[in-house]
């Protein structure tokens, strides 16, 4: 008598068919994938994190209502920085004497959020609402980008789910402190989502003035538009690429604007010994080098490693060299800031850049299973800041 067996492929295929049938179907499948991704992310945060979700938001609520830092610390909450955005909104170009040991000293040129508060009158609750909207926009853009590259709704869903397991994708949910990293993650993602040069200029400008690490990691935006059709470099096409010129213009405008403000208003970021920014901390950071440095990427660390290997095997040394340079710059800045998870996450676009390469070298099934595996690992072992 023949024994009936159910293969692994049969089980997975059945699960994926149900996902496609009930979630990834219809005109609004991207929105359904978005909300399910965020829902799963929050669920696993509640289940796996030692700090209760409501406790994190309660501290933010008390801060936004005006409870002093001293009182919040007494109650066991973190230090919050939203108040400083409101302070900058009132006098954005005022020189402040802030010690290097305070995070606020790094915020003096991060004027986008304060100016938004100044122009719109948004309070801390309103700014945090904008952060959530930007976070949803980022995940939606990632779903759309991966679908456009692979033509697979499952791949798009798996990638977004994996991204939400790391700070690059979940920062908008968990950053109640006021770092606003997720604002930059969204804006530089939108800079590769749209083909409109004016929007690319606008998104990158806001990103740069939100955090200067957006400027440094906008090299990935440059690489995206440089290799938009393939991983080959064509100098003539690059010169005719309006998206690249929009980014270059944004770089120039930001640098001119920053140096002008620096000259006229003498704003400065202190780089004294012991500060958490600059080459002075790199020696200490190398002493910390261990497996924890990859907490910024979790299982997604496989994506750049595999991507670099494939480019090397294909002898595409130009693409390999340019992308590797951007990655090295991200890592150097990570060492300079003594903040691995946050700073590494600014280079999250490298994941998207390599998806096209994987699509060309893996079968549809292999890529789907690969992204599903990474998503599962990231979700069950998520990185929180």
Automatic annotation (TrEMBL):
Keyword Membrane: yes
Membrane-spanning segments: 28-48, 125-150, 156-176, 183-208, 244-265, 292-312, 317-337, 343-358, 367-384
Entry keyword annotation includes NAD: no
Keywords from the named record: Membrane, Transmembrane, Transmembrane helix
Name the UniProt record assigns to this protein: Uncharacterized protein
Organism listed in the record: Emticicia aquatilis
